[in-house]
Structures are given as structure tokens and as C-alpha cells.
Records
---
Amino acid sequence: MFKIGKSNKKQPQNLKEVLVELDTLTKKLESVSGELKALVEKSKGFVQRVGIVRFSPFPEVGGDQSFSIALLDENNNGIVLTSLYSRETSRVYAKPIKAGQSSYVLSNEEKEAITRAQNINSQPPNPKPDDKNNKSK
């Protein structure tokens, strides 16, 4: 009667068995719904927003090999990582972010990475003016 999935389980033969099966399925659905609700709540703390900015902080080094990347959760909590590359050395800095702000002084690039992460779900990135796929010309 109800051939959903592959099961060796005996199919209900009368209304009473159908109602028992319906009750069993209802309980399973409630259990799965509860698990889903718990996962949704737990996922609020997962990294959900990422913003990255590449730049060249030193005039003698080209190629935008330095970067700042913001990794934020649903509440704009997380970290911003910055890597500064030069020919002699490379340095990495990490700063905590709480509600989109840091207790440490942020560079313009770090602020931009955070802004990009916060806006990731609200708008598509702007194409560069020299982008060959830019159709707004």
C-alpha cells in the first residue's frame, strides 16, 4: 500500500494498522524535527560569513600577496586574520571579533574584510572596472 523506500516491513492491511503506522511516523517526525531545531540552534555559532581583502602594504612588493580574512558566525562573532607579506618576512596577525567589532585597533583592510563578511548574504560582489565580464559598460 505505502511503497516508500525499500523496506521488508509488512505493509498495513487495515485501517487500524494504518493508524498505528501513522502514529509511529508522527513520532519519528517529531523526533527529527527536534533534532533539526537543535542543529539549527547549534549552527548559529558556525562560521557562516567570510570576507577577504587582498592588498599590497609595501611599495616594493606587488601582486597583492597580503590579505585580511574575516570569519564570522551568525552574530558577527569570530576572527579576522591578516597576513603581511614582504620579501624578507611574512607576518600573521589574528584579532577576535565580537558583534562585528574588535577590542584591538583594526586596519582599513581588516575593517573591509569584516564589512564584506557581514554583507555576504545581502548583495553580490561588485565587479572590478577592468573585468571583461562586466556588462555595465
---
Amino acid sequence: MGFCLMANLAIAIEAAKATRPDLKVAVLDWDVHHGNGTEEIFYDRADILTISIHQDRNYPIDTGAFADRGTGKGEGANLNIPLPPGAGHVAYLDTMERLVLPAIRAYAPDIIVIACGFDAAPVDPLGRMMATVETFRAMTRQVSALADEICTGRLMMAHEGGYSEVYVPFCGHAVLQEMSGSPINAPDPWGDAYMQRQPDDAFNRFVADQITAMKDALQRS
């Protein structure tokens, strides 16, 4: 939803499944907004795992709750991870390490598909998060290593949101550089300033407690 006229990833997944019906797909959406369209399309299906990391109560304001885990055959195949406004580099990597990667590993997909939005960056006009170029680089490295481990490196990314024309290109380059192994660097001109403005330890502990609560709830389910 949002600015999307068509659900690009859902269309691509269905096209792939038309030739391979047994294909298991894990979708990870790290756009700052909840991936409500992808969630709704696959909410009652077990053959698609949908995960969304997003700013809590940003857009849409009434979707994206952690408690929404799927329905029918799809129960347990949807995972929402709402993070509080201001979450930054530490919180995103902690979320990946303790919630996202274990969920994908347990699901054992044939391919991992990323809705790669860059609107969780500090200067994006539609978000209030603090993910930097190095955050997106590190998350790409994490999920690439997992893809190598569990699905012979099958990883696809599709550019989603990101509305800062001065910062998105650096985020996108970092992701492409990490995926391709390119030696060409595009240094983040605001990297030092944004790292100095990252949340303090008290805030990171607050978010870590929320991540722990979600992890504990998943283990009980």
C-alpha cells in the first residue's frame, strides 16, 4: 500500500511459484512502514513467510502489530516487528540477530526476498528512525550470510521506499556493494554526524527489552 500501485514482490513471487509451485519464500521488509500489502496477500498461507521491521504506528497506523501472526494455514507465518521511533543502528542489528535471522532459519526457505526500503534513515521525511548507510550494509551482510547458509545464496532485493534524494543513493550503493563485492566505495558524507546522533545506551536497552519480550513470546507460541 502507501505509494505502491502494484505489489511488486507479491507479483514476482507468484510468477516464480507458477513454474515451481512448491517454492518456499521468506519475505523480509525493512521499509520504515509496515509491509501491510504483502502481509494481507499471504496472511493465510504457509508457503510464504512474511516479516516486517517497521516504525511502530507510522503508516498504516492500525496495522503491523506483533500479535498479528497469520490465520488458518498461515498462522505463525507472519511476523511483525514494530520498533519505537528513534531506533537506530544497534536496534536494527539486534532485531536482525535475535528475531529475523532465527525466524528465517527455522522456516528454511528456498529463497529470501527483501523489500529493501531506505526510509528508516535519519533524514527521510516520512520516518523517524536512525538507520544509517552502515546499518543497511550490515543488514545486507547478515542476510547474505544466512542465504549462503540455508538456501545456496538465493537472495533477491527490490528497492522499496526511501524519500531523501540526498541520502538514498548512498544507502543503495552500500547494499549493492555488499551483494556484489564491488571495490568501488561511495563514502557516507554524513556518516560521522549520524553515528554521533545515535540513541544512547538507555534507549538501546529499552528497545532491547522489547526485542527480548517478542523473542520470549515467539518461543512460547
---
Amino acid sequence: MADPAAAAAAAPDEAALATTYGPLLEQCNAAQSVAVRYLGKGKGKGLVATRAIAADETIVVERPLVACQYYWNKQYFGACGLCLKSLETTAAMALRLTNYERLPEGFEVPEAVARQDAPILAHKVGCRSPGCTDEVYCSEACRDAAWALYHE
């Protein structure tokens, strides 16, 4: 039988976990929804809900440390130069990649995908730099953020 005192000594203190991971959860706007807890020997630490969370609710928002689209991939799939959001709808991409003039009978875009497609702009926003054709963006906000962060 395992020694309870030894098991307790091996488990991280809840206060220490909150001190260590609390600031990280604050940065990604998750501190009001989740906490880092020790889940047990063999499992380690994990995120657990601290309140009821709706099925479609966003609980963590974080910016990637590094994100880029491979050059060869840019030739086939247009994505925003900052957030990597697709610059075309799923249906438009299916038509382009299959060379069909219209989608086959019975082809349906799932509702969840159609909802994600809804905010995609019909136009692409070009770079602020004259003559630059390397990057396109999904919005003026992404273009301006990219300019301020790295593209200037």
C-alpha cells in the first residue's frame, strides 16, 4: 500500500500551482474559467474547469509564439499574413481544388464550417508597403497589426 504522506509530498501545492500558472492563465484570458491542478501520479498537471462552461464558449485565447505559412502552401491556400485565417470559403476552395464549375449534387458544407466561413471577406487586404505582394490580410486590422509588429 502506498504511503499517503509520501504521495502528498510528491503532489505540488495548490498555492504553488496558482502562483506559477496563474499569470499565464491571466495572459490568455482563462483565469476566470480554468485552473491548473495536480491530477495524480502518472497524470501530472492538467487544466480543470472552475465554473460551468458552455459547449461553444471560448475559454482560452492566446497568440502563437511563431506562426507562418509555408511558401509552397501559399500557392494553393490563401491565408491572412497575420492570423492565418482562410481567405476563401470552404465551398470556393472545394471548387478551385476540384476544378468543378459547381459543387456536385449532394455536396454540403457542414453548418459548423459554414459558420466559420461567414466572416471571411470577399476581398483581400493588401500590404501597406508599395509594391509588396508577399502578404495579404483578412482585414485592415490584421494588416495594420502586422505592419506594427514586424512587416514594416
---
Amino acid sequence: MASSGPPPPWLMIVAALAGLPFTWGFAYSFYVDNKAQKTWVRAAATVLESRVAEKRRDNRTSYYAHLRYRYTFNGRNYESGQIGNADGAGWRGPAQKLANRYPAGADVIAFVDPANPENALLEPGYSWFTIAGLFLIGLVWAGGWLSFWVQATFPRLWR
């Protein structure tokens, strides 16, 4: 099947605009979660287990911090393993650093969702770098498709 040139201009505009709500929607949901998690109730917790675990997939190994901690909320005991919105997955160094920050037996603060006390984190919120990165990805996506549209619509500008 032979190519007949660039996609139609209307398709490029649609592709450019479709990426914005998708990436910005993710960024906005992260922002909303970020705000909500910052208001969760603090509870004393004790780290029960802390280690670096590995995941093997397709001949690749990635590492993540594996924790278990116990906390009490409204007189009831709970256990969780959720550290935050990232677990240091990937390289061993960041995962080890995260596990070292929470050694077994350490007293820590857990942030508990008062509406669902089984849901707790040690590090609430997303980094602003993550949220800003999603906005930037949306802009780059839209900019790339818009530049294709300009090239297809106004070819003399590119000579």
C-alpha cells in the first residue's frame, strides 16, 4: 500500500487536540489526588517489614521498595504496604534508598484516608514534577501534530 502523503489536515488538528484532554486529564486527576491526600489524617505507624524486592519480566529485572506497616485509626488496627504514589520501581538504587528510609521497627507517620481507613500512605501526594510533566507532554503532543498540520497546509513555509 503506497503512501499518498501526510494525513488530511483535519485529522492532524483532531490528533493535536485529542492529546490535550487526555494528558491534562491525567495531570488534573493527579492534582486533585495530591490535594486530597495532603488532608488525610496522620496516624502513628510502625514498620513491620522493609526490603527491596525485584520483578522479572521479559529478561529484565526492576526493583521496588516492599514495606509493611501497622497503624491505628479510630481505635482499630490496620496494615498497609503502600508507601506513596511511587514505590521506587526501576533501578535498585532508588528502591534501596526508599526502603532504607523506612527500616523495620521504625516509628513513622501514616496518612490515612478518613473515608476509607484501609487506605493509607507514608508519602502522600504526587511530585509537582510529575504533574507538570504531564502538562508538558500534552503541549508537546499538540505542538507536534500542529506542526505537521502547518507543514501540510502551508508547504511554502518549509522551503
